[in-house]
Amino acid sequence: AIQNLILQSELSDWVKQRSISVFRRIAVAEGKIHGHPPEKVHFHEVGAIDSIVDIVGACIALELLGRPRVLAGPVVEGTGFVNCAHGRFPVPTAATLEILGARGVAVTQCEEPHELVTPTGAALLAEFAEGFGLMQGLVASKIGYGLGTRENKTRPNVLRAVLGDMLASARSPIADGGRAQDWE
Predict the structure, then answer these.
(1) Are residues 122 and 104 in contact, defined by beta-carbon separation less than 8 angstroms?
(2) Are the C-beta atoms of 77 and 118 separated by less than 8 Å?
(3) Mapping DSSP to helix (H, G, I), strand (E, B) and coil, where does residue 14 land?
(4) Rounded to whole angstroms, how far apart are CA atoms 72 and 5?
(5) Is 180 helix (H, G, I), strand (E, B) or coil?
(6) Which of 35, 79, 97, 149 lies at a 20 to 30 A Cα distance from 155?
(7) Are 33 and 98 in contact (CB under 8 A)?
(8) Burial environment of residue 126 by CB neighbours within 10 A (0 to 12, 13 to 18, 19 or more)
(9) pTM above 0.85, yes or no
(10) CA distance 72 to 130
(11) What is the pLDDT of residue 171?
(12) SS3 string of 72-121?
């Protein structure tokens, strides 16, 4: 149903393809956890309209930015438990670990007693981030912040996005070049 909704929209082909790919990552992870093929997965939290908006909106934003290369900081997750459709589960959740693990992304936990990386966030990272690590040789041209409403204990509840170019001296095989104009 989500795939059909996206395919029947007036979104660009690139946004449709990438949005469906992000949802597929979640479906594959949930299917593996529940022992079902991805096509038979019933989305609970992620099927909510806000998750559809988050995923499709992120894809639209990246397209509007010219489909830049995406690099991310190390993935840091909190501790504790979350309540979801299947009950109370430890953080990081099975879906988050499965999505990031399938892509080979390392996760480090910190002392924050909350979920910091949702399955939706993990799927977006797995789909778009070419590499994970500390900023190196980045010349920022624009900076955006998303502020959450929850009061964290050990760190601000902030997501930061930085658009910029990399200095030639800082380029590596993973971070080779400035902004990419095409993902293909």
Answers:
(1) no
(2) no
(3) helix
(4) 29
(5) coil
(6) 97
(7) yes
(8) buried
(9) yes
(10) 8
(11) 58
(12) ECCEEECCCEEEECCEEEECCCHHHHHHHHHHCCCEEECCCCCCCCCHHH
* 158: alpha, beta or left? (left if phi > 0; alpha if psi -120 to 50): beta
User: Looking up tokens 């624009």, which residue turns up?
Assistant: 142
One-letter amino acid identity for 97? L
| 3-class DSSP string for 33-85 | HHCCCHHHCCCCHHHCHHHHHHHHHHHHHHHHCCCCCEEECCEEECCCEEEEC
